[in-house]
# Entry
Amino acid sequence: MKKKILLTPIALVTSMLVSGVYAQDKVLSPVVVSGAQDYVVESTSSVTRFDTPIQQIPQSVVALPKQIFDDQGSQTVSDALRNVSNVNTVDSRDQNNTGFKIRGFKAGMVVDGVPTAGFFHNHESLSNVETLTVIKGPSGDTYSGQGAGSQDTSGGTIFIETLSPKAKQSFSATGTVGSYSKKGISFDYNQPLNDKLAIRVGAEKIDSDTNVDRVFFKRESMYAAIGLTENKDRNVSLKFRSFDNSTLDYYGLPRASVSSNEINPAVSRSTFFGANGQPNATTKGNSSTFNWTENLADDLSTSFIASKQSYKLSQPATGFTPNFVSSPLYLSTNAYSSNDGYVPMTLTQNIESTYLSPSFTKKTLIGQANHKITAGYDYQKTTDNADFLQAPISANPLVSAHAMSILGFPNVSSSPW
# Structure
């Protein structure tokens, strides 16, 4: 059976009109789409030890610029690392004993090309940070064979580049207020001395209470730097930085029973579980770093880093006698207004570290590909003197009082030692 399709004159006219419309040329006005790239870091020296575009690095790398810290109001390194996946946060109440982990494995920290020693990663001030780069995956061989600062780097490395002197004068100051009576102030000042040399100084101070009674945080930091500016073939700088942080060591909350992992529901989460008169825990750090980088030829450059670091920790804390832990008093709210059963203890740690690193980088053409080959030597000597002191559990009050005085607990009752 055959079907016929007939076009009426009206349909023919409509078809001709539509065809005429599409046959006409029409020029549209251009549409321009633009956006700011304030959070983009194009290159880093954290992985290869020479400046390399991030898109050319065959490893998982996340680089965070200073602008993102300022916009988010980040106060600690842990705050800033919330922007990076697979990195744990560090509770500031336990930052003297806890380091960062990447993908569940330990991570080291490198500041201006220098591996840092100890668990003081979260004490670094963000006010002096230009970029923060996270290298995911094992990277210990990049900064000495044992990892960064003799820290295990099977999880990766956190690389910090601090602020450098610039050729243009600048000054900035910020103030911070927040919950738990938080208040802080910081400033940064950059001053050219001539057309080749400049200095940069800054400081930060932050005070804050917490949700736990008597527990507080005080953070003070200073930095200074002098260096060459506007020199493409030579980069020389000398940087100093220091921090002085204090808090009250927080033991945590008691369990519902001796064998339980649950928190005692009768105790408020804001309760400070420790002895009256417990001294503050203090952490101090100082560092000086000299960095020289120079292009010897179009295809050859050299670098030399020398650094001296020192860290001091004094962490008084509260322990408990075995009888006290198993007694009903341990699980009652009356225990937190009494000194009965507390055992004063103090952890001290003094770290001194010296780091030297000369290296050469050579550009070479192999086949059709350009390569950079770096050879150098890393020397790091670190001394770590740590002591853990605990008052003896003695029936003699004079013995216990003397021990507690040595530990810095002069106001704690000696009863019932």
About this structure: The first helix runs from residue 9 to 23. The chain has five helices and 18 strands. Residues 1-19, 329-339, 394-404, 406-417 have pLDDT under 50 and may be disordered.
